[in-house]
Amino acid sequence: MGVTFGFLKSWPARAITILLLAQAGLMYSSIGPEAVPPGRPLAGFPATIGPWQMVQEGVIDAEAREVLKADDLLTRVYGDSASGRVADLFIAAFRSQRNGKAPHSPKNCLPGAGWVKIDQSEISVDVGAPQPIPVNRYVVAHGDNRSLVLYWYQSRDRAVANEYKAKFWVVADAIRLNRTDTALIRVIVPIRDKNEDLADRTALAFVRDTFGTIRAFIPQ
């Protein structure tokens, strides 16, 4: 009797299968030393990128660093004085995802910080690369405040939005390259006067303007 894989038509079953494969891949890769690539320190990330100028350097306390478990972190607010646009940039870089280290998904962290999801989707962003990159788009609210959130996972020249696909690529990279490095990139733009279209344009422009610089700080 042939083996049937009809259960994989169920999305929860596919998700569990991917997570089990991820665990197997990481166990397999742990047999030998991992190829941990050197990375440029995020402290050297430029204060000026095109029209965007850093207006605030965020501080991540020791407790938050312990929770995030990232190898390098950056949190900054950038502004474009000519237009009045502002965008909050957060990068969490992981040289390895062994020993339980992995990016914390904003879809879980934002509700924990009191933000309520209003809308979510996956969009494509033209960043001047050979192909657009997939990005998660969230609209969240905290009391009367609303913000637009874009985030994705960047590993070398590969951008991934979906968390389960990101786990799949952890397995593939661990087996093929003996590497599990990645980075979470998150951009937050406040929605002012309920003008969601303006927030979209600001966030997309910021991603396009900074993507090349972000790539330069991700190990290749």
List keywords for this structure.
single chain, 220 residues, 9-stranded antiparallel sheet, 5 helices, disordered N terminus
Q: Let me know the number of strands.
A: 9
- Put simply, the count of helices is 5
The largest β sheet comes out as:
9 strands, antiparallel
Q: Which regions have little confidence, pLDDT < 50, spanning 5+ residues?
A: 1-5
Radius of gyration: 18 Å
The percent range for helix content is 25-40%
- What sequence of helices (H) and strands (E) makes up the elements? HEEHEEHEEEEHEH
- For the record, the count of structural domains works out to 1
CA(first)-CA(last) distance: 46 Å
What does the average pLDDT come to?
86
Proportion of beta-strand residues: 25-35%
- The assigned structural class equals alpha+beta
Q: Given the C-alpha coordinates, what overall shape results?
A: globular
Topology:
Elements: H1 11-29, E1 48-49, E2 52-57, H2 62-68, E3 72-80, E4 85-94, H3 106-112, E5 116-125, E6 133-142, E7 145-155, E8 158-160, H4 163-176, E9 182-191, H5 196-216
Helix pairs in contact: 1-4
Q: How does this structure look, described?
A:
The structure is a single chain. The protein is an alpha+beta fold and 220 residues long. The protein has one domain (8-216). Helices cover 31% and strands 32% of the residues. It has 5 helices and 9 strands; from the N terminus they run αββαββαββββαβα. It has helices at 11-29, 62-68, 106-112, 163-176, 196-216; strands at 48-49, 52-57, 72-80, 85-94, 116-125, 133-142, 145-155, 158-160, 182-191. Strands 1, 2, 3, 4, 5, 6, 7, 8 and 9 form a 9-stranded antiparallel β-sheet that branches. A hairpin with a 2-residue loop joins β6 and β7. α1 packs parallel to α4. It is globular and about 50 Å long. The model is unreliable at 1-5 (pLDDT under 50).
